[in-house]
Design goal:
Elements lengths: L2 H9 L8 E8 L2 E14 L2 E8 L8 H12 L4 E6 L4 H9 L3 E5 L6 E6 L2 H4 L6
Parallel strand pairs: 3-4
Antiparallel strand pairs: 1-2, 2-3, 4-6, 5-6
């Protein structure tokens, strides 16, 4: 992985703790992306999720497969991601993976998308 996120992925392990998971997305043996789960920030809205696919592997189904596998492997969890409103590709990926746009962050800079159990199942308001 190159660029900022490539460097970040190689430096992240020391930052990971019991409340963080970094899942590396592999194509054969090549790292082509990652999913970063922050369970420390889990609220009734869900586990905070960040996803990234290396530019050379975008629009090939890699991100969609990774998100679908994540959700399928954790059917009892709810996920939330914050996406820049001008990041049309990321919003389309989230929609294709079954995420629903539910509003914006507290500053109005990012679009929030959710996927998983309705919050009513975990005690909060339903966004799905």
């Amino acid at each position: 992985m190159g660029g900022f996120y490539g460097a970040a992925a190689t430096r992240m392990p020391p930052l990971l703790g019991p409340d963080r998971e970094l899942l590396i997305v592999l194509l054969a043996t090549e790292p082509v992306g990652f999913l970063d789960l922050d369970t420390d920030r889990e609220t009734s809205d869900g586990i905070d999720l960040t996803y990234f696919v290396v530019p050379g592997h975008r629009r090939r189904g890699v991100g969609l497969a990774a998100l679908r596998a994540l959700v399928a492997g954790r059917p009892d969890r709810r996920f939330v991601a914050a996406v820049r409103p001008d990041n049309v590709a990321s919003l389309a990926l989230a929609r294709a993976a079954g995420f629903t746009q539910t509003g914006s962050d507290e500053w109005g800079d990012l679009v929030l998308v959710h996927r998983g159990l309705p919050s009513s199942a975990s005690g909060g308001p339903s966004h799905l």
